[in-house]
Design brief:
With about 350 residues, this protein is of the alpha/beta class. It folds into 2 domains: about 1-100 and about 270-358, Isopropylmalate Dehydrogenase, CATH 3.40.718; about 105-265, Isopropylmalate Dehydrogenase (3-Layer(aba) Sandwich), CATH 3.40.718. The chain contains 12 helices and 14 strands. The protein has helices spanning about 15-30, 45-50, 55-65, 90-100, 120-125, 165-180, 195-210, 225-230, 245-255, 295-310, 315-330, 345-355, and strands at about 5-10, 35-40, 70-75, 105-110, 130-135, 145-150, 155-160, 185-190, 215-220, 240, 265-270, 275, 330, 340-345. A 10-stranded mixed sheet has the order 2-1-3-12-11-4-5-10-8-9, with helices on both faces. The chain has a two-stranded antiparallel sheet with strand order 6-7. A two-stranded parallel ribbon has the order 13-14. Nicotinamide-adenine-dinucleotide binds near residues 13 and 73.
Length: about 350
């Protein structure tokens, strides 16, 4: 059966990196029998500029109909002074929420060829393979009340609410336990239960769930310590489960252990396993339009799409192997380069992966 894939390139480097990921999908369709149909829709600042809305109705409708979404990146200084609901970021948040994409998987894997680019010493990161499971449709990103106003004394004020109900915690918790069970069998739940009521509920629910997964070793860590441990001894972690905001921050930290944020893919899944696939990084306005962005996070997101939604684990393996082989050949975009290797443009890196897959 033909799978419908919606490409939402977005802003900044989004279109550049999506172009390379689409070339990968095309070669898989042409040479490896992947049965797909591609469509494209506007999102983010590009959609604000042309339709006055970061997630226009027709884009949302197309997203609902798709079997999987390939998302580039959104945002940029051009739209930073827009009201909150007209900012590109709110289009992405609405998309996640409307599609029920509550489980965000962010694997931080060090390709051995890139040990030089990691922020940490080789011996500390060699073999690094962490899965961060981030809750994506709740917490302080979506909690009500949220807003801004003026105090009685006439001072400006603003507020957000970090709120979870137990069902939201149960569904992400179950997903995380299942993922941990299929990996190294260790799950670390990251919270701030020493201070926040919402974190105490999070911890209580994780403990309750643990009884159904006796084969998974559950531990808890406060988020400040987790941030420190990630850069002190990251290999102590196998699977991490955490809330929306903490997961956002910890996944960017984990990115630098792998050499560059340009290496980190992600999958955002609903209850049925349908999903949106996007690099963890943003629109990188500082390098947009220069053809230097690393497309590997997006190409590796295609691999996650193949594995989790299209049920073509065989092709996912091929894409991941191709990435390794291209790195073996010494090809590097600027963010992961070293003295001995040649610098590749976004397009050259994408082209090398495509050639490898032919
Ligand atoms: N999922 C998303 O669409 C997403 C994610 C994060 C940030 N954003 C948005 O992106 C905009 C810029 O945010 P930011 O600068 O804080 O984060 P960013 O991730 O866009 O960039 C941070 C740094 O990483 C570099 N970088 C990012 N991706 C890279 C790649 N593929 N190759 C090489 N270098 C890369 C950038 O050049 C920059 O120096 C903001 O509007 C933000 O809201 C969007
Ligand atoms: C752009 C922003 C809304 C988004 C988030 O905070 O979730 C981004 O930082 C991410 O990591 O996907
Ligand atoms: Mg982020």
């Amino acid at each position: 059966m033909t799978s419908r894939i919606l490409v939402m390139p977005g802003d900044g480097v989004g279109p550049e990196i999506c172009r390379e990921a689409v070339r990968v999908l095309d070669v898989l369709a042409h040479d490896h029998g992947l049965d797909i149909e591609l469509d494209e829709a506007l999102v983010g600042g590009a959609a604000v500029d042309s339709a006055g809305d970061p997630l226009p109705e027709d884009s949302l409708a197309a997203a609902r109909e798709a079997d999987a979404i390939l998302f580039g990146a959104i945002g940029g200084p051009k739209w930073d002074s827009q009201p909150r609901d007209k900012r590109p970021e709110s289009g992405l948040l609405r998309l996640r929420s409307e599609l029920g994409l509550f489980a965000n998987l962010r694997p931080a894997i060090l390709y051995s060829q890139l040990a030089h680019a990691s922020s940490l010493k080789k011996e500390i990161v060699a073999g690094l393979d962490i899965m961060i499971v981030r809750e994506l449709t709740g917490g302080i990103y979506f909690g009500k009340p949220a807003g801004q106003g003026t105090t009685d004394a006439g001072r400006r004020e603003a507020w957000n609410t970090m709120r979870y109900d137990e069902d939201e915690i149960v569904r992400i918790g179950r997903r995380a336990f299942e993922i941990a069970r299929a990996r190294g069998g260790r799950l670390c739940s990251v919270d701030k239960a020493n201070v926040l009521d919402v974190s105490q509920l999070w911890r209580d629910v994780m403990n309750e769930l643990a009884t159904a997964y006796p084969d998974v070793e559950l531990s808890h860590m406060y988020v400040d310590n987790a941030a420190m441990q990630l850069v002190r001894a990251p290999k102590q972690f196998d699977t991490i489960v955490t809330t929306n905001l903490f997961g956002d921050i910890l996944s960017d930290t984990a990115a630098m252990l792998t050499g560059s944020i340009g290496m980190l893919p992600s999958a955002s899944l609903d209850a049925a396993g349908c999903g949106m696939y996007e690099p963890v990084h943003g629109s990188a306005p500082d390098i947009a339009g220069q053809g230097v962005a690393n497309p590997l996070a997006t190409i590796l997101s295609v691999a996650m799409m193949l594995r989790y939604t299209l049920e073509r684990g065989d092709l996912a393996d091929k894409v991941e192997t191709a990435v390794g082989a291209v790195l073996d050949r010494g090809l590097r975009t600027r963010d992961i380069m070293d003295d001995e290797t040649q610098v590749a443009s976004t397009q050259e890196m994408g082209g090398a992966i495509v050639d490898m897959l032919r």
